[in-house]
Amino acid sequence: MKSLSLLLAPTGEMPSFLVIILGLAILIMAAKVLGDLSGRLGQPPVLGELVAGILLGPTFLDVLGLPILESPTLGLTVHHLGQIDVILLMFIAGMETELEDLRRSGRPAILGGTLGVVVPLVMGSAAAWLFNYDLPRSIFVGITLSATSVSISAQTLLDMGRLRSLEGYALLGAAVIDDLLVILGFSLFIAI
C-alpha cells in the first residue's frame, strides 16, 4: 500500500502517465486474448483485435468513467498511438511486398480499386439524396463511404500468410488504387 502512495500525486490522483500505461495495458491484453480466441475459431486474429478495440476503446475508457482511468490526455494518447500503429503496419506490409508482383496484378487491382470507389460513391450519394441531402452533401457522403482501410486488409493477409500471393497482391493493389482515387476525389471535391 505504501508503494502505491508513492505513485500518487499529492492530490491522491494517479499521474497521467500511469493512467495511460494502465489503459494501454488493458487494451493490449484484451486485443491479444480476443485475437488468440479469433485464431482458434478459424478467423484472422485481426478480427478479435478489432472487436477488442471496439468494445474497450472509447466505451470502456470513457463511458464507464472508472476513476482509475481518468486522465485528460488518455483518449488523445490512445488515438495518436493507434495512428502510429497504422503507419508501422503499412510499413511492414510494404516491406513484405514486391513492387514487380504488385504490378503484375494490374487488371484485377485496377478494376477492383475503381469499382471500390465508384459503387460506394454512387450508392452512398443516392442514399443521401433520398434522405433529402443537397447535392454537395450527398457527394460528400458518397466519397466518405468510398474510403477503405488498407491496414486491415494488409493485417488480415499477413495473419493468413497470403500477403505474397496473387490474391494478396491484387487486394493490396486494389486498396491502394481505391485510396488514391478517394484522396483525389476528395481533393477535387474540396477544391470545387
Would you write up a description of this structure?
With 192 residues, the protein is an all-alpha fold. It has ten helices and no strands. It has helices spanning 2-7, 16-40, 45-56, 58-63, 74-96, 99-104, 106-130, 135-146, 150-160, 166-191. Helix 5 packs across helix 9. The longest helix is centred in the C-terminal third of the chain and has 26 residues, at 166-191.
Q: What's the topology here?
A:
Elements: H1 2-7, H2 16-40, H3 45-56, H4 58-63, H5 74-96, H6 99-104, H7 106-130, H8 135-146, H9 150-160, H10 166-191
Helix pairs in contact: 2-3, 5-9, 7-8, 7-10, 8-10, 9-10
Separation of termini? 63 Å
Task: Tell me the fraction of residues in β-strands, as a range.
Answer: under 5%
Low-confidence stretches: 1-12
Number of β-strand runs: 0
Instruction: Output the number of helix runs.
Output: 10
Average predicted local confidence, pLDDT: 77
Order of helices and strands: HHHHHHHHHH
Radius of gyration, CA atoms, in whole angstroms: 21 Å
Structural class: mainly alpha
Q: What would the principal axes of the Cα set say about the shape?
A: globular
The share of residues in helices is over 70%
The major β-sheet equals:
none
Task: Provide a compact summary of the structure.
The chain is an all-alpha fold. The chain has helices at residues 2-7, 16-40, 45-56, 58-63, 74-96, 99-104, 106-130, 135-146, 150-160, 166-191.
